[in-house]
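Action item from last meeting closed. Structure (383 res):
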């Protein structure tokens, strides 16, 4: 009986909230009418995007309420409403999520009134079930009905609020558009960096090398000793130019990845980072390797994370974890430093994020003030 009463109490609260939201929906219909009239009159067109955003918040509150009751999240798929007024109006009126929310709001006024009908069942049900359980030894009957009504409210809300295939497609297109823009920006930045490295480093050394060889040829007959010195200098310049080229090549695709694989390359990074780094590997040392682009992205994420930890964290310890997942590769880097890192805090974080996004992966930074800082990356691939 106590369990039934607790469940009925929780269901009654759920239905009371549904009833309150249904009453709010009735009031909000007036807001919708005002917005429609103002938009048609043009002078109030700015109200439409704001009203749509308000509807999203109301629908989000209902999603949260249903998730608290059922334990299952209702996904949402919205296009971002931003930019100038014309673009905001276009997004608000063409986003499939807008029509999903409006459909739910109109329907919700009708079935949300179940909450009003169910409220009187609580005192009556408590009395009836108390008599039945105390005198007849039977199970409670009315109180479970309240829970069923709450289940029905959650089921209807889930059916009406879940994104349509069109909404999911629109969200995916928007996401891929942003990802492509980030990938193009990252590619452009990478090309500019390579050009700068070649121009300022390798090219300058090759020009100096050519000049020294020319001077050595001129001095060879009249001053062999000076020519020998110039040739020694030229050899040093050639070695430095080769070192610069190796640096540029490593930045494009580290040869160590080809030679040792991702696990060996990450362990080499850890050994040369200047930190006490623990490398944990799960399921990668045996079996097929990930594609080269995935391994390169994982390598650069670890390299940047360890560099940031050594420079900014104030900690001398870090941990790197590589794991094979059913849908791809997961990478995490953790340091016990001062924290406070942010995805928008510098070009290093932004570069990691763009590199991962270009491969349709996910990039997450958790770094509260006081630490620890944890970078988690998921890179999709087929093993």
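Sequence:
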């Amino acid at each position: 009986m106590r369990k039934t009463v607790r469940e009925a109490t929780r269901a009654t609260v759920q239905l009371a909230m549904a009833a309150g939201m249904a009453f709010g929906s009735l009031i909000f219909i007036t807001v919708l009418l005002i917005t429609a009239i103002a938009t048609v009159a043009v002078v109030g067109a700015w109200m439409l995007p704001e009203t749509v955003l308000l509807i999203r918040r109301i629908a989000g509150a209902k999603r949260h309420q249903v998730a608290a009751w059922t334990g299952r999240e209702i996904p949402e798929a919205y296009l971002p409403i931003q930019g100038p007024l014309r673009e905001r109006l276009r997004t608000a009126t063409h986003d499939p999520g807008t029509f999903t929310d409006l459909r739910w709001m109109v329907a919700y006024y009708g079935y949300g009134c179940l909450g009003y009908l169910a409220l009187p069942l609580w005192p009556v049900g408590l009395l009836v079930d108390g008599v039945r359980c105390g005198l007849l030894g039977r199970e409670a009957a009315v109180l479970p009905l309240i829970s069923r009504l709450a289940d029905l409210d959650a089921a209807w809300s889930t059916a009406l609020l879940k994104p349509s295939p069109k909404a999911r497609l629109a969200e995916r297109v928007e996401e891929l558009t942003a990802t492509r823009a980030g990938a193009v920006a990252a590619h452009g930045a990478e090309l500019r960096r390579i050009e700068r490295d070649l121009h300022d480093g390798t090219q300058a050394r090759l020009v100096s090398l050519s000049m020294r060889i020319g001077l050595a040829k001129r001095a060879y007959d009249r001053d062999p000793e000076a020519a020998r010195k110039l040739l020694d200098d030229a050899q040093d310049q050639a070695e430095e130019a080769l070192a610069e080229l190796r640096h540029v090549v490593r930045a494009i695709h580290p040869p160590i990845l080809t030679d040792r694989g991702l696990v060996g390359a990450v362990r080499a990074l850890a050994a040369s980072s200047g930190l006490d780094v623990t490398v944990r590997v799960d399921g990668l040392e045996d079996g097929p390797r990930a594609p080269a682009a995935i391994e390169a992205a994982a390598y650069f994420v670890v390299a940047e994370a360890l560099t940031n930890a050594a420079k900014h964290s104030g900690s001398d310890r870090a941990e790197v974890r590589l794991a094979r997942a059913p849908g791809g590769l997961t990478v995490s880097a953790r340091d016990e430093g001062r924290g406070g890192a942010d995805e928008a805090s510098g070009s290093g974080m932004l570069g990691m994020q763009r590199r991962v996004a270009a491969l349709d992966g996910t990039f997450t930074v958790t770094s509260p003030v006081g630490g620890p800082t944890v970078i988690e990356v998921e890179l999709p691939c087929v093993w």
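Note appended to the action item: The beta strands are 276-282, 317-325, 328-335, 362-366, 373-380.
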